[in-house]
Amino acid sequence: MKHIIKNAGLAIVMAIGASACTESWVDTKPNGSPTTAFFWKSDEDLNKAVAAMYAPMGYENTWGRNLFWMQNASDDIVTGRVRAESDNIKNFNITGREGSIANCWNDVYWMLNKANQVIQGIPTATGVSDAVKNRALGEAYFIRGFSHFWLAYSWGHKDLGVPFDGPENVEFGKRIPPQLPSVTDNYAQIISDLQKAADLLPLFQTYGAGDQGRAHKAAALGYMVKVYAYWAQYDASKWALIPDLADKIKNEGARALITGKGTPAANYQAVFTIDNNWTSEYIWSVNSGVQGGSIFPGVSLENKGWGIFNGWGYFQPTEELYDEYEAKDPRREVTILKFGDKFTYFGKERSYFSTNSLSGFQIRKYMEPYSYGSNENAGSNMMINQSGDGPSTRLNLPLMRYAEILLFKAEALIKQNKNAEAAAPLNEIRARVGLAPIAVPTLADLKHERRVELACEWTDRLADLKRWGDYDKINMPLHGRIHDNKTDPASPYKVQVIWPARSFDPAKHMAWPMNPDEISRSNGAYKQTPGW
Which intervals hold domain RagB/SusD (predicted)? Predict the structure, then answer.
């Protein structure tokens, strides 16, 4: 399903028709729309072409929901409701033809292709100012690098990368995009694109309200940090490149943690509020509104929303995640709802219970939009889409925030045996939530802090476990709280296994399988992910 996307930062509402579902990502020709034809004759024409690149950000198949099914295979989250395809993904029992995987591939490549069209078309543009050309080119390089990264780390393997092509290659448009030899070759291309983007893009703080949501320099630098961290599992020298980039994001990009809200809990809660969509912690998000954007807040809300709003009831935290928090860590209650916890829902205080939750928990981070209103009528609340079939909200879905940059800096320093230096970025995060500093943090400290700071976010706990080699965490059985009465917030519970032990095999499961139909259509040009 495609949703109408409201890109608040570009002030453009774009309807992407159902035909987009069947567009081949290997099609590099213009496709009948002014936004993809190479005859841009004004700043407005080029801005429309750029806007089209952002459209897939809020699709259900991408950062609305489906890309999270692969992250759901970690130890932090369980599916929640029975959904056979998603259960099979979590259990690594798949072929690659599953719509929740194959459609992600298609739509993210569609996004990459839109960026290629802008990169190819900009030299032909007439009547367009140099400033608009340069920014548009920077945005296109960012979107190409960003979408390529998600494809590479999800489907790319050290012994076989994912397909890529671009208009800088002489055979572009005349061939099937070649499959690169290794995911590290993909990472090298992504770094090249992100560096070009960083060189061309303005700083976020120079954007007016009408341009918030466009790619910006700190976002390009931020994804360079993440690409280097993922690349470092194959080439440890990449860790040395991260600290300087992190400092540039802080000093030039003016990125910083949100603090000063009165209490440690309020500091952390402020990150996940509509008022702070664009504050200093923002690096990159899915821009969302009542007319479209990421539906993830509604997807992770109680199924049918206690009879008030149509939540979907997916993606529920595990006992293992709950137990990871230190006893006085306020991030636990901001992140997770458990039976009996108080929360405000459409203007009324409630005590949490769930007839749906497999684990007895719910993600709380994204619930602020549902707190407003004077009665239990979703239609009166302009913070959310009134349709439960497309439950987007005015809360942007964070994909990268400054806290993750600090954690990558700390990890990079620890990996270089500079543990004492890693204390500063790690403890900056702990101080924000009122926790005691760690004088000389270890890799175990870093893993803990990354898990609890970024829990239930789109930072990919499964990818972390894979790059750290912590396969035992993936394989362990997962637990939840089974309450005697699922309609009683005070009901007693027993901790029980809710997901049996799995069989993650690093010889096979380090990357997801490509759709076999994609391989067939390539006439032998593509090979399946090693092990599959």
Answer: 311-532
Residue 496 is predicted with a pLDDT of: 98
Yes or no: say if 37 and 46 are a contact pair by the CB < 8 Å rule: no
- Calculated CA dihedral for residues 274, 280, 286, 292, nearest 10 degrees: 30
The one-letter code for the residue type at 450 is: R
Q: Which of 398, 422, 420 is nearest to 246 (CA)?
A: 422
Q: Which amino acid is at 26?
A: V
The residues that bridge with 78 in the sheet, in sequence order, are 316
3-state class (DSSP) for residue 350: strand
Within 170-266, strands assigned E span: none
pTM of the predicted protein model: 0.92
Distances (CA, A) of 39 to 29, 34, 132, 135: 13, 8, 15, 18
Question: Which burial class, exposed, middle or buried, applies to 464 when counting CB atoms under 10 A from its CB (0-12, 13-18, 19+)?
Answer: buried
* Amino acid code (one letter) for 24: S
**Distance (Å) of CA 459 to CA 37, 111, 292, 356, 453:** 35, 20, 22, 26, 10
Residue listed under structure tokens 């930062």 = 9
Phi, psi (deg, nearest 5) at residue 282: -65, 130
The pLDDT score that the predictor gives to residue 38 is 58
Cβ atoms of 234 and 184 closer than 8 Å: yes
Q: How far apart are CA 50 and CA 37, in angstroms?
A: 12
Q: How far apart are CA 321 and CA 330, in angstroms?
A: 14
Q: Cα 400 from chain centroid?
A: 7
Beta bridge partners of residue 311, listed in sequence order: 303
For residue 154, which of 113, 178, 187 has the smallest C-alpha distance?
187
Q: Looking at the predicted structure, is the pLDDT value of residue 19 above 80?
A: no
C-alpha distances in Å from residue 345, one per residue of 319, 368, 396: 24, 9, 19
Which DSSP letter does residue 181 get? Answer: S
Q: CA distances (Å), 187 to each of 119, 134, 146, 164, 322, in order?
A: 19, 24, 11, 11, 34
Q: What is the separation of C-alpha 334 from the centre of its chain, rounded to a whole number of angstroms? A: 19
Bin 32: left if φ > 0, else alpha if -120 < ψ < 50, else beta: left
The CA distance from 137 to 139, in Å, is 5
* 303/299 Cα distance (integer angstroms): 8
Residue 379: how many other CB atoms lie within 10 Å: 10
Beta bridge partners of 483: 493
CA distance 57 to 10: 13
Amino acid in position 17: G
Contact in structure between 502 and 474 (CB atoms under 8 Å): yes
Question: Which residue in this structure is represented by tokens 């569609």?
Answer: 110
The CA–CA distances, whole Å, from 316 to 61, 251, 359, 437, 443 equal 19, 37, 7, 30, 27
Tell me if 132 sits within 8 A of 43, measured CB to CB.
yes
Q: What are the pLDDT digits (tens) for 324-336? A: 999 999 999 999 9
